[in-house]
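Reviewer comment 2.1 asked that we show a complete input and output for one of the modelled complexes. We chose the EPU case, as it is the one discussed in the main text.
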Amino acid sequence: MGLEPQQQVDLTAANSLALPCRAAQLARCSTLSELRSARHYAVQQRLPLTLLGGATNTLCPPAIDGLVVKIEAPAGDSFSVVEEHSSTVVIEVAAGVSWAQLVTDTVATGLAGLENLALIPGTVGAAPVQNIGAYGVELAERLVELSFYHWQRDSVTTMSAADCQFGYRDSIFKQSLAGRGAIVALRLRLWREPAAHYRSDYPPLAAALAGSELSAAAIAAAVTAIRQSKLPDPAQLPNAGSFFKNPLLPSSQFNALLAAYPVLPHYPAGRPGWHKLPAAWLIEQCGLKGWQRGALATHHRQPLVIVNRGGASLAELLAFADDIRAAVAAKFAVDLEIEPQPCRAAALGGIGDAV
Ligand code: EPU
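Response of the prediction step:
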């Protein structure tokens, strides 16, 4: 069956930063065969192809030429159990499923493991790209393997968690595989409740849970309450969550900064000799918490989040972010890296593509 994309589709309301954006053509795909048709169409028509999930961590330009492929949830349950063991199960989830819905559904089914990642916007397929993480857990710790549809080879490969080269807010899908394919399904290992592996040591979470009996549902409820108390809901106040990564500093640079600012908050970076700093603190110390220019502002409760109060363009957003980066660099000599990803055309294997 041939693909019949929609023409000239306004994606302003479909990206969480509400950046004005129009797609020349749009195909909604929820299965591998639909993705294959979209690829075939783009190759036949010699069109660039751009992949979007929930567009909750994406910097959308005013116009996207060619074909935009939006990954959506297939009909039916959000996940299926594909392996059962005495205390664990492996579930399979399609890429287009809402991550937050998956967490709600697994917790409601008595499965633990994803509760710390409650209420994170976006799709399941996008989760490995930035290795979503919150309140002490990263996706990398739960992923068994994923299915990756390679545009150029037109074939699906299975990749283990090690193959994905996960790091803090990083993976191979942001590096050598950027634009090379689409994640079509994840397999995650979860525990049957009651589980022995609850993670509740992140300080605000530990405080919220003090005295209560641990369960996936209790942790999910506490995480949800904390997120709602400090992170703006993109549906009400457009944003892409943390706009910058928390910077990782080598010991020499970190020690010099700590000598100058003894109150500098810091965390282990997960690799020896490195330290992680909260970008929110650096931004706040520059006097930029709640800073506004035009339609843009850093959020008044969490300055790491940039909000679009209506009508800001991508160019204005990047200029605003650049001014924040410049202020932090001038005061602390620390570079902030932008976390949301630009839209980029896929490498379909046509003339001019790098291999
Ligand atoms: N802080 C300030 N001022 C503020 C807010 C925070 O100085 O207004 C400092 C404090 O020192 C605080 C520290 O920043 O202790 C950490 O703040 P928070 O717990 O809010 O976490 P974060 O480091 O700002 C990261 C993730 C979030 C995730 C939380 C919880 C990144 C880039 N962001 O934020 O992820 O929800 O930890 O684990 O790593 C996202 O990626 O979109 C996201 C929201």
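The chain has three domains: 6-74, 80-230, 244-338. We note this here for comparison with the apo prediction described in Section 3.2.
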